Amino acid sequence: MNSKFKILVVDDEPKIVDVVKAYLEKDNFDVITAMDGLEALNLVNKETIHLIVLDLMLPKLSGEEVCHKIRAYSTVPIIMLTAKADEDERIEGISIGADDYLTKPFSVCELVVRVRALLRRTYRDSSPMADILTFNNGDLEVDIKKMIVKKQGEVISLTTNEFKLLTALIANPGQVFSREQLVEKAFGMDYEGFDRTVDTYIKTIRQKIEDTPKEPKYIITIYGMGYKFIPSFIEVKQ
Q1: What is the residue range of 10's domain?
Q2: Average pLDDT value for residue range 68-86
Q3: Contact 220, 230 (CB under 8 A)
Q4: Which whole-number Å values give the CA distances from 195 to 53, 119, 179, in the listed order?
Q5: Which residues, renumbered to this chain, carry the PTM 4-aspartylphosphate (predicted)?
């Protein structure tokens, strides 16, 4: 895995932070750390971060609150850590925006494997694109590195899967993809969902980025074949 990826590790236990940081750096990741929720949010706002390892039990601001606030403007992948093994806790973590979940005590080697897998699924198609793409004279703006989408200058909230699907389409403007091809391109071969879930994702993305979702100008349905992204105007910012 390329060392260009920056990981933020957030935990109030110094020993855990030190061990996780050491293992991730050994795997050639760039690692920064935070000991509380407020420090974590400040770093997210200042740095370009590609993945967050986030403990739930944090001082100043809980992990749940940190995740909720980040999800208001970013789809950066998040792996949550918790000392609670209760199923309700795991469901709550996923529902507020976590992409993966590990219960303490955990294997650091397993965490590194999960980090690699989540990064691979999330960023597999982002490298060839410019940092920021804008469409229709600024009507839609997509920041690839920060995983932020704006509609008419206002940040809109997309889930990680919605963002991955949108960027997969954007990376290949005008190309028609079947549902199966989009699943493979956006989520990878190990994705456990069904190809028909693509329709649901497309519907919610349209509700967020289209002026009139039932008459879309960006994501077009090609009946009997699939979907394609139509940029009527593209401006690239470096």
Answers
A1: 6-123
A2: 80
A3: yes
A4: 29, 21, 5
A5: 55
pTM: 0.55
Quick one: what percent of the chain has pLDDT higher than 90?
A: 33
pLDDT at 3: 46
CATH value at residue 137: 1.10.10.10
CB 144 within 8 A of CB 167: yes
What is d(CA 93, CA 56) in angstroms, rounded to the nearest whole number?
9
More confident residue, 96 or 155: 155
H or E stretch at 36: none
Are the CB atoms for 29 and 1 separated by under 8 Å?
A: yes
| Domain C-terminal end among 86, 106, 123 | 123
Cβ atoms of residues 74 and 147 within 8 Å? yes
Q: Give φ, ψ of 151 to 5 degrees.
A: -115, 115
Residues 10 and 119 in one domain: yes
The CATH number assigned to the domain holding 32 equals 3.40.50.2300
Q: List all residues 6 or more positions away from 60 whose beta carbon is below 8 Å from its beta carbon.
A: 36, 37, 38, 39
Distance CA 155, CA 114 (A): 29
Same domain for 113 and 140, yes or no, is no
Query: Regarding beta strands 226-229 and 154-156, do their DSSP bridges make them parallel or antiparallel, or are they unpaired?
Result: unpaired
Give yes or no: residues 12 and 116 share one domain: yes
Condensed to tens digits (0 to 9), the pLDDT of residues 165-196 reads 998 888 777 778 888 888 888 877 555 555 57
As a whole number, mean pLDDT of residues 51-63 equals 92
